[in-house]
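Why do we bother with a discrete structure alphabet at all? Because it lets us treat a fold like text: something you can write down, compare, and reason about line by line. To make this less abstract, here is a complete entry for VOC domain-containing protein. Read it the way you would read a sentence in a foreign language you are learning: slowly, and without expecting to understand everything at once.
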Amino acid sequence: MKLNDFRLLVNDFAASFHFWHEIVGLSTIFRDENNTYAELDAGNVKLELLDASYFARSIGSVHSAPVQEGYRGVVVFEVDDLEEAYADLVKRGAPSLAQPHDHPAGFARVALLTAPDGYVLELFKSRGNFPH
């Protein structure tokens, strides 16, 4: 098996697309004309955005997924320069959740930003002893 993509079910497609495309800078592979689905280039995999209500209808549900309290998931990117990448994203409008800091386990420095629909964007710079 090979991971092809990672799909985020989103309630506000426009805000999510703006964040991942305009602020984070992922290039668009495909975006449908109804603004319910997009594929973005995230390196070795695609990051897909799918309107949650469209997904619910596609599986025969009349209700979209329930709104969750707290964070729904974390999308993690390894970066070469953590402080620079973090500062650039904050400058472009990404809300900061945690400034660059040492991970408690000591294997990396990390920074966290909030993305639309309850997702978190984590940036990390490995110290070379990342547990796999």
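What the structure line is telling us, in plain words: The chain has two domains: 5-58, 73-126. The two ends are 18 Å apart (CA to CA).
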